[in-house]
UniProtKB/TrEMBL annotation:
<dbReference type="InterPro" id="IPR052539">
    <property type="entry name" value="MGD_biosynthesis_adapter"/>
</dbReference>
<dbReference type="InterPro" id="IPR004435">
    <property type="entry name" value="MobB_dom"/>
</dbReference>
<protein>
    <submittedName>
        <fullName>Molybdopterin-guanine dinucleotide biosynthesis protein B</fullName>
    </submittedName>
</protein>
<feature type="domain" description="Molybdopterin-guanine dinucleotide biosynthesis protein B (MobB)">
    <location>
        <begin position="6"/>
        <end position="133"/>
    </location>
</feature>
<dbReference type="Pfam" id="PF03205">
    <property type="entry name" value="MobB"/>
</dbReference>
<dbReference type="InterPro" id="IPR027417">
    <property type="entry name" value="P-loop_NTPase"/>
</dbReference>
Amino acid sequence: MAAVRVLQVVGFKNSGKTTLMLDLLKQATQRGMAVSTVKHHGHGGALEMPSNETDSMRFFQKGASCSIVYGDGVVQIHQRKKQATLAELVAFASAENPELVLVEGFKEAHYEKIVLLRSAEDWLELQKLEHIALVIAPELLKLDNVPVILQNDSKKLYFWFTNWMDGDSNEGI
């Protein structure tokens, strides 16, 4: 199995991360790529779960460390884990050998990332992140060694992501 490519989408709350993830997912799947996604639930509290009346949730509620249900081509997994690293989640998301894993959040992780800015002030804190491949900003910024695309420039973003998927992450815009 070849190593899976991982691309993170990071930024502060309401910066457009999920919207961008959906756009990148659509672009990659239209090219016929198998894509997995991982999202950091940064809203606090536990995730919303299916009804406690389902058999799989009854197993989970009674103490199963992992409950898996399969039906009509879909696998649903609920697993207890006190802490999970992004590397573990990427490995889990790679179980079906995708060509790409898109990650929303996990700012401090070491994968290549697209940084979304709501304003130039966001850059003051986010510039410390490692492996920044692209910045998407509401206004044109001049950054050393990091390409910048304006938020609404979908054509340049499409071009950049196509080149990135083809393995040319150094391609200029």
